[in-house]
Structures are given as structure tokens and as C-alpha cells.
Amino acid sequence: MNIVTLLPFIVLIGAMFLMTRSAKRKQQAAAQMRNDMTPGTGIRTIGGMYATVKEVHDDAVLLEVAPGVHAVYAKNSIGAVLDDDEYNRIVHGTEDDLKSDDAPVVPDDASSLTETDEAADASDDLRIDLGKKDTADTVDEAPEAADAEPKKTDGESGAK
């Protein structure tokens, strides 16, 4: 056999080896991270829930998801172990280091986007005519329409 015919197979096997090696390395790092958890550590589950570790067992972890609320999770469901600063910033909302005086103030509602004129407020109270008239008005205006035969619908037309 010629080396040129074997070259694609050699490259394919080498690529597969490199990919499995990097995946195995990531799995080992995740397992090490889960084993290094200690009580009091802030974590994020793979579902996106933030909690504090209360107890660590062989395959399970007792998490405090809210004050006084505990839940048992599998160790494999821990997505990330967070450092204290990041956990407090996300869960407790302590963003002192992120705020600056130069940042623009964004209102919580859309009140700043609407007009503040008195005329605009008065025009909102007026009744809008959409062109539809009351049924009593149509009967009074056209009494012959009330005596007329109703239109046929649902395939009842007179066509043969």
C-alpha cells in the first residue's frame, strides 16, 4: 500500500484522539471542581439555580436554595462553583464595584418616553369612533333593512 492512501486515515485517527483527550480533560476538571466543594460555597446548577452548599456527600449535595429551604442534588448537577464575590453579586445584588457616577440613569418604566403635555392627556379621554354603529342606530336609519331577508351563508346560496 502507498502512504498517500493511508494519510487520510492517519489524520482522522489523530483528530479523534485529540478530541477525546480534550473532552476527557474537561470531564476531569469538572469532577475535580465538584470534589473541591465545601460547605458555605456558592454554586450554580446546570439548570441555572444559585444555591449555597450545606453538606457534601459521596454522590449528593445538600443545597440551601433559600433561607431555610434545603434540597438534595446529585453532584453531577452542579454546573459551576462560584467564588464569594461573584456569588454575592449575583444572588444578593451587591454591585458596588460595577456602579459608576458617569453611567446614564435608566428609568424602570416607560413614563419618560411618553408626552407630558396637558393636551396629550386630555386627548386620551375622548371617545374614538371606529366607524361601527350601534345596532339600534342601524334599525332606525334603515327600517327596510330589518324587513329584508337575511343573507344566506354556509353554502346555502341560490347558485345551482
How would you describe the overall organization of this protein?
A hairpin with a 2-residue loop joins strand 3 and strand 4 (69-74). This protein is extended. Helices cover 38% and strands 18% of the residues. A 5-stranded antiparallel sheet has the order 4-3-2-1-5. It contains 5 helices and 5 strands; from the N terminus they run H-E-E-E-E-E-H-H-H-H. It has 160 residues and is α+β, with helices and mostly antiparallel strands.
SSE order and pairing:
Blueprint: H1 3-35, E1 42-45, E2 50-56, E3 60-66, E4 69-74, E5 78-82, H2 84-91, H3 118-124, H4 135-141, H5 143-147
Antiparallel strand pairs: 1-2, 1-5, 2-3, 3-4
Oligomeric status? single chain
The computed structural class is alpha+beta
Q: In total, how many beta strands?
A: 5
Give the CA-CA distance, first to last residue: 82 Å
Residue stretches low in confidence (pLDDT < 50, at least 5 long) are none
Helical residue percent band:
25-40%
Q: What's the shape?
A: extended
Q: Please, what is the average pLDDT?
A: 77
Based on CA atoms alone, the radius of gyration comes out at 35 Å
Order of helices and strands: HEEEEEHHHH
Short description:
By secondary structure, this protein is of the alpha+beta class. It contains five helices and five strands.
